[in-house]
Amino acid sequence: MIKAIFFDIDGTLVNKQGKALESTKRAIALAQEQGIICGIATGRGPIHLSQKIDELNLDVFVTYNGQLVFSEEKTIRSAHFPEETLKRIVAFSDRYHRQIMFGSRRSMEGSSLMRFGQNKWAKRLSYFIPKRLPMTVTKNLISRLSIHRKEQRYFELDILKEPIYQCVLLSPPSELDTLKEQLPDCHLTRSNPYTIDIIPAGGSKMIGIQKCVEFFGISTEEIMAFGDSWNDLEMLTGVGIGVAMGNAEEDVKKVADFVTQSNEADGIYQALRHYGIISEDTLEK
């Protein structure tokens, strides 16, 4: 019996406009009426949640890929970078003029280019950019953007005086092995071909969910999770039922227990109905 459901946000819980479908809102509300805990499991930090999920009235929040987990009443997990590890990331980023953002509980700061990429205008523009550019184009684009980041020294940022839970680095997939050598005490994961999320070693969305399992007194077999990207792989294979969205990466679909419709086509509602968590006629009530 499913007792908790976790949703990735981008590409899963919300559509391309950053909104949850009406069918998604209703399906989550109906699940909660049955006593099922509903939460998110995202690579985003708390500062970027409100505009996406305020109207969903969720119960628990697994943020920064499992590094910061909380409910309205309590912090369940708080696992920030050790000081020496963070110094190494900052030194690496300054030495090679990399575009990087640093995430604390209250904010994300760093690269002005990446901050621009988070605003609404840039997000609308991104809908017209192919989801996956050729590898050589991606690598050259990121290299050209990185060499122009010379004005700011990251070690001077005030945010580094706070606990940092995650860093987001502009980086092509081809650079993964190099980064692993440079940052051996970090876990690297990505949700798109253009940036990589850096968190302390041993972290993941699944680790955050496991902390929720302990907090709520349930088992991982009683968890259902929805996702669409590479940073959802551990989560979908670690819970009782892992659901891939119809728009998910092929690697994600391969490991899922069920592939539902896309985030634009009532995918969450369809999966919850498929597993009998909500009945066919409840959406019209």
From TrEMBL:
Listed GO MF terms: magnesium ion binding; phosphatase activity
Domain of life: Bacteria
A Pfam entry, by short name: Hydrolase_3
Any one GO CC term of the record: cytosol
Official protein name in the record: Haloacid dehalogenase
